[in-house]
């Protein structure tokens, strides 16, 4: 699976993202619309982690979706 599938089916993956990162609001998830860069930016904003940590967390989450 590639990231395009997440982007194309974002409504299905929104729940999994909200479950993993509870600080993301429904409005955040609507703005993200499955775009990885938007997701990473919102996670940095909400959690204050470094960009490399966020990228690793998103990669781990993505692998778990498969």
From TrEMBL:
| Source superkingdom | Bacteria
InterPro entries for the chain? CsbD (IPR008462), UPF0337_stress_rsp (IPR050423), YjbJ (IPR026042), YjbJ_sf (IPR036629)
Q: Which positions fall inside the CsbD-like domain?
A: 4-56
Q: Which family is annotated? A: Belongs to the UPF0337 (CsbD) family.
Q: How is this protein named in the record?
A: CsbD family protein
């Amino acid at each position: 699976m590639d990231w395009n599938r997440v982007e194309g089916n974002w409504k299905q993956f929104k729940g999994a993202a909200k479950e993993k990162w509870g600080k993301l609001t429904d409005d955040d998830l609507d703005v993200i619309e499955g775009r990885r860069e938007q997701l990473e930016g919102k996670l940095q904003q909400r959690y204050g982690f470094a960009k490399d940590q966020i990228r690793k967390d998103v990669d781990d989450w993505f692998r778990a979706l498969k």
